[in-house]
Amino acid sequence: MRKYRVVADQLLDEIAQGKYKDEDRLPTEDKLMAEHNVSRNTLRSAIDVLVDKSILYRVQGSGIYIRKPVYPDTITINSIRGFKEEFKNKETHSEVIELEQLPADKEISQKLQCEIGTPVYFVHRMRYIENEPFSIEYSYFNKTIIPYLGREIANNSIYSYIENDLNLSIGFADKYISVEKLSKMDSSHLQLKEADPSLVIEETVYLTNGTLFNHSRVIHNYKHAKFFALAKNW
Amino acid sequence: MRKYRVVADQLLDEIAQGKYKDEDRLPTEDKLMAEHNVSRNTLRSAIDVLVDKSILYRVQGSGIYIRKPVYPDTITINSIRGFKEEFKNKETHSEVIELEQLPADKEISQKLQCEIGTPVYFVHRMRYIENEPFSIEYSYFNKTIIPYLGREIANNSIYSYIENDLNLSIGFADKYISVEKLSKMDSSHLQLKEADPSLVIEETVYLTNGTLFNHSRVIHNYKHAKFFALAKNW
DNA sequence: TTGGATTTGTGCGTATGTATA
DNA sequence: CTATACATACGCACAAATCCA
């Protein structure tokens, strides 16, 4: 693994274990460089990772400080794998309501930026946490990029299949967040009432090489949907 | 201004003017270095800025590409100043419902991480876009850090007052996003019905030196609240 | 209050690794 | 397989913000 990632992981471990909790502050860059045997740039790349993750913040002339931890049971919206990762200390499972292969119609082709008629997989899934309905997912995958998708995969994690089995590298995603009143069908799936609130995230997901491979619309149970985002003052 | 920021701004301008729209791709790093007379590190810092803003993405071995533009009329959740900035092509205004100075009670002191009794400003504002109610803001400012706040400021932009007049540097913010049913009072302010959906953002805002100075709870009209976030696969 | 020491931020140069074309 | 282009890593110098005597 890249050196700066190793250092980032080590620092993350140390922070998690409370090594710096008295000070809420890391040693100086010079000390960390010596400790981890890396150059200044490499160390700073490692710190960058943790700053992006909102674990640390830096103050010029002063030091590198540890942030207050994010509230538990919230999904970090700037991260791609929300569900299983964020709730790994809880029981989570998925239920595939529908999975089929079909040719892209006009709407789907626009969302997946592909030709009309391109074969795509459509997945309709429910997500549960501790057996409580958490979200409904309507998802399309471009079959040109994801050549196969089956129920056994969708019951587990599609993303870990894509990364570990297909050996593709997921890069980034656009997410649009809005609020809607639930349709009758969605409300029954979520065990809520029609016209109850829901938090809707539409996301477009790309490989690291910029290829668009997935578009999803995820409808969240308003009672459980709590998201976190870090904002910067550009 | 810092060199890498100048380069970032120049590139942003060029992109906005469609200079690269045929290719959707920037010249190589080597060419950009020569063009802007900067070192590789400086150029890469400039590109980093635009990648963070989801303007560009990089593909190792291939090039630097221009992203599809974000939908208009959405608020970038990873940016701190949402309202006036994102809707600067529209008429926006604020209406101060309440502005008072008071000592922090237990709840406020926890949210502002200060002692009970610390003087704080409380601001209750409505935000309008094209004269449509957009959001309700309940905001607390630590008076130790923000020594004065008046109605004439709150009618305008509190943040520009803090940065330009008080000369403080706003750094970063934590945002928690959730969905709630509207209370009777909030619904009337938003000209909606009681129990209608709303998107709620609780944010804690820090100066660049890590000082917590503001906590806000902002309740958005579900008909207009559209947010955007860029997610990375860490 | 000032000024020096400390600490992070910016910028330059160079070499090598790795993914893509 | 080779060339191209971005990614990582090293070292150095100076700027700017903060801290402290």
UniProtKB/TrEMBL annotation, chains A, B:
Residues 1-69 form the HTH gntR-type domain. Keywords: DNA-binding, Transcription, Transcription regulation. Pfam families: GntR, UTRA. It comes from the Bacteria. PROSITE patterns: HTH_GNTR (PS50949). This is GntR family transcriptional regulator. It comes from Carnobacterium antarcticum. The lineage of its organism: Bacteria, Bacillati, Bacillota, Bacilli, Lactobacillales.
